[in-house]
Amino acid sequence: MQQDRDPFQKLDHDADPDDRAFRSAGAATVGAILLLALVAMGARESRPAEAPDSVGLPNPADEVTAVAEPGECTAAFEPETLPTGSEDVSTLYLLSESIGEIEATSIDDKSGAIVSEVESARSILRLNTTEAMAGSWEVSFVGEGDVTCKGSLDLAASTTR
What we know:
single chain, 8-stranded mixed sheet, 1 helix, 8 strands
């Protein structure tokens, strides 16, 4: 008595040797392609990651537009303009040179603004502008060895009080 079997299913022992070789070569090719894909993905993932822009902050390396004279350190800000009349406003800063640990930060006394905090690790400058006057004011960062970086920060009159 003959068993019922699917006529479309070909068993290995029914296959001719050339067909088995062809299937083996095909499997080896697919395996090689998968291996190359995994190696390529691993190489891509092992590259150093760029800093994420997850909080919508710009990449400070893209923001420096001032050309510094040799030996002159400049500071750039983003946003470049902050409102007056606020106890706590923040801006990102980028220094054109590394100055080590920031030892002092100041804004022109005539501005009426007060530096309330400098977060060096995140390059954030916080100001109290409750008594500040609108205008363009010089901000100075003093680092190790009295190396100084200077930049201009605009304060604009707040439209809401």
